[in-house]
Task: structure prediction
Amino acid sequence: MKLLFGRPKGLTPTNQRYCPGCGHGVVHRIVGDVLVNLNIREKTLGIAPVGCSVFADEYFNCDMIQPPHGRGPAVATGMKRARPECVVFSYQGDGDLAAIGTAEIVHAAARNENITVIFINNAIFGMTGGQLAPTTLPGMRSTTSVKGRDVTKQGYPIKVCELLAGLDGPYYLERVSVHSPKQILRAEKAIKTAFQNQIDNKGFSLVEVLSLCPTGWGMTPVDSKKWMEDVMSKYFPPGEYRNKGKEAK
Amino acid sequence: MAEKTLLKGNHALVEGVIYAGCRFFAGYPITPQNEIPEYMSVRMPAAGGVFIQTESELAAINMLFGAAATGARVMTSSSSPGISLMQEGLSYISGADIPVLVTNVVRGGPGLGNIAPSQADYYQATRGGGHGDYFTIVLAPDSAQELFEFPKLAYSLAEKYRIPVMLLADGLLGQMMEPVELNYEPIDPKSIPVQDWWLTGCQGRERRVVRSYDLGPGKLEEWNWRRWNETYVPIMKNEQRYQALQCDDAEIVLVAYGTSARIGGAAVRIARDQGIKAGLIRLISLWPFPKNILAELAKKVGDMLVVEMSMGQMIDDVKLATEGKTKVHFHGRPGGGIPTPNEVYEKIRSIAGGKK
Result:
C-alpha cells in the first residue's frame, strides 16, 4: 500500500501541543517538508523561541537549541558563523521577535547574516494567556488591553517586514498568511525560498507568517479565518517586501 | 625558547585566548577593556577566527551560546555593567551545560559607576549572577602573564565540567604593561576533541537538543541535583586554587585576590621588614572558594586580614571558611579606590599592635 500523505521526516513523531485552529502546526509542517525537500535536514540547526512554540525543539526533526526569549537571531549568528556548512533557522513568535528581541532581529538583518527566520505573527501573546503583543491591532482586545488597544496609551503595532525593509542589509523579506489553502501554498513557496537563499549564501531571509490564534482571539477557528481575511491581513498586507534575488535580475 | 614580550594586560589576554585555541569572539565596547575587542578585531581574523562587534552584551553572550553549542571554543569580554546584561545568557548557558569563557574587567559600581579598577563584582561572579541554582568557575589573574596563561586553564576546566568560566580581572590589570612569556605552543583548534553533545547536524546519528528547560514533573529537580553531584561537588573538591606567601610562620595572614593580592604582597614585605610575621593567601579560584587552606590556617593563625576593592564581599566566604576560629579583619576601598601598600601595612601594624 502506498502512503499518499503523512507526517514529513522533517518533524518528529511527538504530538504537538497546539490549540485547535492554531497556525503553528501548519507552519511546522511546511518547514518540516522544506527540510526534507531541500535535503538539508541532516545539516540543519534549528532555534526554538520562547512562547507557544517553545516546544519546537521537540517537534523539528533536526538538531535544536532553545535560547532565551528574543535572542534567537544572536544565537543563530553564533551558530552560523561557527559552522557555516550548516543551515541555521530561527523560529520566533511576535513577542519573541518584535518585542523583547527587537534589537537582535534588526541587527541580524542589518548584518545580512546568512540565516533563515520564520516569524509567526498572530497579534497576541499566546503562551502566557492572551496579553497585548507588539503586533496587536489598534482596538483589538487582549488580557492587558481589555477595552481594546488604545493607541494613545499603548502605541501602534510594529510592522516587522516594513521595518526591516528600511534597512539595506536583508536579502529577502516576505509576509504570507496561512488562513486559506491558497495562502498556505504561497507560504510554502516563501519558506522554501528563505531556506534556498541561505544554501546559496545570499544572506538574511525572513518570512513573516500571519497566523491564527482562535484561543487568544476568543473566536472559533472559522471566525478566525474570516477575521484574518477581512481585518488582520488588511493591516499587515502580505507580499514581498525585499527580494534582492529579483532586483538583481 | 619561549618568546618574551612586553604586553598590556588586555592584549596579553587576547594572545592567551588565541593561543588557547579560541576562534570565536563576540563583544560590545566598554571601558576599561576596549583594547580587547580592538586588538581582537585584527588578531582573530588573522588567526582564521570570527570577530563580531555586537549590538549589545545580550547579543554577545547569546552568540557565544550558539557558537559554543556547535563545539566552538569561544570568548567574550566586558566590564561590570555589560556583565550584568550577560547574566540572562549565563543562566541559560549554565542550564544547558555549555562551556564558555567570559572575562570581566571589573570597574567601579553600582550603576554606571566609574571606570576605575574595582573588585565589587565578587558576589555577582561567585553566586551565579543570574536566576536559578548554578555556579560558574571564577579565576582571578593578578598579572599580564596570568592573563595570557589563564585562558588555557579556563578552557580545560570549562570543557572538562561543561560549565562557564569567568576570568575576573580589573581595569588596573587590563591597562598595566608587563613582561609576558608566551610559554606554550599555540593550540590548534582542530585538535579539540569532538564531543557527543555538539550540534553539528544530525547526519548519521539521532538529533540532539541543547536546552535549559524541562517542564516534566520532578525532572528539573532531578537535573539540578545531577549537576550538583556530578559537576559542582567535584569542582569544589578538586579545583580550589591559591598561592601561599610566607604563611608557614605567619601570625597575621592577608587574604586577597587579583590587584589587591599584588598590593597585599607588597604590604606583607613591608611588615616582614618591620619584624611583623605577616603572610598572604592569594586566591586564584574564587569559585570554588579555596576554603580548605583557610580552614587549616584558621586553626593556628589568630588574625586574618581581608583586603578587597569593595565594601567587603569575599570576606563573607573567608568567615564561612574559618568558622569563627580566627579573627577576620577587613580593609576595603569601594567605588574604584585602590589601596596602597602602606595603608594595608598600617592596618597590619594596628592588628599586630592591638595584640600586644
Q: What stands out?
A: The domain at 24-248 of chain A is CATH 3.40.50.970 (Rossmann fold). Chain A has one domain: 24-248. The interface with chain B takes residues 12, 41-45, 47-48, 54, 57-58, 61-68, 71, 74-79, 81-83, 86, 103-104, 106-107 of chain A (CB under 8 Å).
